[in-house]
Design goal:
The complex is a heterodimer of chains A (435) and B (277).
Chain A: H1 7-41, H2 64-74, H3 85-101, H4 135-156, H5 160-191, H6 196-206, H7 210-213, H8 215-228, H9 240-243, H10 253-278, H11 296-321, H12 329-365, H13 367-392, H14 407-422, H15 429-434
Helix pairs in contact in A: 1-2, 1-10, 2-10, 3-4, 3-10, 4-5, 5-8, 5-12, 8-10, 8-12, 10-11, 12-13
Chain B: H1 3-9, H2 11-30, H3 38-58, H4 65-87, H5 91-111, H6 115-139, H7 155-178, H8 190-197, H9 203-207, H10 209-212, H11 214-219, H12 228-238, H13 241-276
Helix pairs in contact in B: 1-2, 2-3, 2-7, 4-5, 5-6
The chains are: A mainly alpha (435), B mainly alpha (277).
Chain lengths: 435, 277
């Protein structure tokens, strides 16, 4: 009976420590980045004063996250009366725990060169749970657990803004999970695996990122992951101008901090997924090969490329925030059910057809030309789908009420009209009686 | 030979019978009734804890202390939250306890190496269905419920039937698994899983996957192997294709029916509004 943790367990703990520490630091500094970008877009200076504590060194404001964190932790943790205490306290923990646990299945690099430590199989992957065969589903499962935090937080606060935010959020997240899944299924189908590291390796092997092979899937997934992360233009669950703060209106102090960190983690998760599934992960043409036997320089280079791409996607998220106004709720639902869902299906069918007939294509046309056709077909599907969606979906951008010409409705109108026509003859029996 | 009589004669059989009786009494005491007192609920909790320890003691070790501890934790979460689901009076808390049950069940499946089932349980039940439940429960404020909606209708019958079912299932499953070696459904260690998964990485493995994966899928339903999902898919869309398609059509019919019902409801609502005007 061995009660000591094995080397593999220790390695997993080290990875967890590095990942959680890195993510928390990243979240803190991404807040600073977000404020800088907001300031740049709005032609302000942004936070640039706080530097090294107790000195006068400003360092472009790089000390700001520390000051922000200290401030919000030391603030009064106020619990309003009338809240459901158990759920009110549990909600921030649920959402943060789920958001962090997602990263157990997300690779944050390629592999390390052989270390030769007994008990740890070489090469060591940059992944906390390398034995998990269903990584993509794990991410899905835990992001759907995170919905509970939002829903319960909104309900337990006993506040109408919080409650509306929670309801909006759950409706939005459930609706956009479907296009998200459809966008992702195309990639799973092409790579033939639910493991995120295998999906990255498949892109590195062929050199064709799935964003190029499945443009429609990329668009659908990108839009859906914006909605899942509840970032503008999909931030209806918090919508400061309408709902004060949405589901975390009543929260303060460290509980609010947990909610905000979880939100940033959602955005980081979305960026990770976009990069890993569609933008080639650690692969870059001419810089990284596809081999699994690499040296230290290559390992660090791959880690750097993956991080750089993720940072790029996050900056894109932040620029979008200041570029588009928020959707109205009916527009949000129309986009999910009437545009993104059909487009996702079109993408899935195209990818399935291409993957099914790829051997025949290669046999008939030769590998080079077959590859070109396999890329061209999804692009044609993308263009056609986009045009059809653009022409035929109801435009939800004007605010005039949509007049429906339902035949049943017209009959009812006519019946009502007739009743009014008859009305003068049998008006008010009281009047008739008095006459 | 009568299996029940031989089982009750042995000490483990007596333990099982005692646990069943304890869980029946505990359920009866805990189910929401008009005549509940603090003392009866406390006694119910105590009996329930005794019964759970009894049930745990009838089980067998999985191999190592660590595995047993993990299994007992997740299984305990599942069972205790399941009890709490039917015992609590607030519908919202019931739904949340049920979510905890699902998390526990998913944990049990993960421990036993059925990764896909474990994660799919969370995605389908906890992630989609239960969120809808919560949504509806929160919209329909539970404070407006009548007292008779808050109590159990037949607590004694329900407790007795549940306990008898539990006892029979424990007995029969215990008998079934006694015939097999206990290591049949253990998850391979992480090192083994990595070693098994390593050659499957990359596109080279993907190319001949269609030929290699189907053969072992037919050979046997192993859990915890590296290509579990592929095996499951091959089974579902190979041998059970018809059932899958029928289920899909059934769901589609239900969906169309739901939309038809909803749109008719909207029309009558308009009617009411017009009549009211």
């Amino acid at each position: 009976m061995n009660l000591l943790p094995s080397a593999a367990t220790l390695a997993a703990l080290v990875k967890i420590g590095l990942l959680v520490g890195g993510l928390m630091t990243a979240a803190a500094y991404l807040v600073l980045l977000e404020r800088w970008i907001a300031a740049w877009v709005q032609d302000r200076r942004g936070p640039n004063r706080v530097g090294i504590p107790l000195t006068k060194v400003k360092l472009f404001g790089l000390g700001q996250p520390l000051a922000d964190g200290l401030k919000i932790i030391l603030k009064e943790d106020f619990t309003p009366s009338g809240v459901d205490r158990v759920l009110y306290n549990a909600a921030p923990l649920v959402i943060l725990a789920a958001s962090l646990a997602i990263f157990a299945a997300i690779p944050f690099g390629s592999v390390l060169p052989p270390l030769g430590i007994p008990g740890i199989p070489d090469p060591v992957p940059f992944l906390v749970a390398p034995g998990l065969d269903v990584g993509v589903l794990w991410v899905f499962a835990l992001s759907s657990i995170a919905v509970y935090g939002v829903l319960l937080g909104g309900w337990a606060s006993n506040n109408k803004y919080g409650f509306l935010g929670g309801l909006r959020s759950s409706a939005q997240l459930v609706a956009y999970e479907i296009p998200l899944g459809l966008g992702l299924l195309g990639v799973v189908l092409a790579a033939g695996s639910l493991r995120l590291d295998t999906i990255m390796n498949a892109q590195a092997e062929t050199g064709v990122w799935y964003a190029f092979a499945q443009p429609l899937g990329f668009i659908v997934f990108m839009v859906a992951s914006f909605a899942e992360a509840a970032r503008l233009p999909f931030d209806l669950p918090e919508a400061e101008q309408e709902l004060v703060g949405g589901y975390h209106t009543e929260y303060s102090g460290i509980k609010l901090l947990l909610f905000l960190v979880a939100e940033f983690l959602h955005m980081i998760t979305a960026a990770f997924l976009i990069v890993i599934l569609f933008l080639g992960g650690w692969h870059l043409w001419g810089v990284t090969g596809s081999s699994q036997e690499i040296g230290w320089i290559q390992a660090l280079l791959r880690f750097g490329i993956l991080s750089g791409k993720i940072l790029g996607v996050i900056v894109f998220f932040m620029l979008v925030r200041w570029s588009w106004p928020r959707f109205r709720f009916d527009q949000l639902m129309n986009l999910a059910w009437k545009v993104m869902l059909p487009l996702g299906l079109v993408n899935l069918v195209t990818v399935a057809a291409v993957e099914e007939f790829r051997p025949q294509l290669v046999a008939a046309l030769g590998p080079g030309f077959a590859g070109a056709v396999a890329i061209a077909l999804p692009w044609i599907a993308c263009l056609v789908g986009w045009l059809v969606a653009g022409v035929f979906t109801p435009s939800g951008t004007d605010n005039t009420p949509i007049l429906t010409h339902d035949p049943l409705d017209i009959e009812r109108e006519m019946a009502e009209h007739e009743r009014l026509e008859r009305a003068p003859h049998d008006v008010s029996p009281t009047l008739a009686g008095s006459r | 030979m009568d299996p029940v009589s031989t089982a009750t004669a042995s000490p483990s059989g007596l333990l099982l019978a005692g646990s069943v009786a304890a869980i029946a009494a505990s359920l009866w005491l805990l189910l929401p009734k008009a005549s509940d007192t603090v003392a009866s609920r406390r006694l119910g909790f105590l009996l329930g804890a005794v019964a759970l320890v009894g049930f745990a003691a009838t089980g067998r070790s999985l191999g190592s202390v660590g595995e047993d501890a993990v299994f007992l934790t997740v299984a305990g979460i599942a069972v205790i939250s399941g009890l709490a689901t039917i015992v609590t009076r607030s519908p919202v808390y019931s739904a949340i306890w049920f979510a905890m049950t699902l998390a526990g069940v998913s944990g049990v499946l993960l421990v036993l190496g059925a990764q896909f089932l474990g994660v799919a349980t969370i995605v389908v039940y906890a992630g989609a269905i239960l969120v809808m439940f919560l949504f509806v429960l929160m919209l329909a404020q539970p404070s407006g419920m009548a007292p008779y909606d808050r109590v159990s209708n037949e607590p004694m019958l329900a407790a007795a039937a549940g306990a008898v079912l539990l006892g029979l299932l424990t007995l029969s499953i215990g008998r079934l698994s006694a015939a097999e070696p206990p290591s049949c459904c253990r998850m391979p260690s992480r090192a083994q899983a990595v070693a098994a998964a390593a050659p499957a990485d990359g596109a080279a493995a993907k190319a001949d996957e269609s030929t290699t994966l189907i053969a072992p899928a037919m050979a046997g339903g192993d859990t915890g192997d590296a290509n579990e999902v592929a095996h499951l898919g091959a089974e579902l869309f190979g041998r059970h294709l018809f059932a899958v398609e029928v289920a899909g059509v059934l769901l589609l019919v239900a969906l169309v029916g739901a939309i038809a019902v909803v749109s008719r409801g909207e029309a009558t609502e308009t009617d009411h509004r017009r009549e009211g005007r």
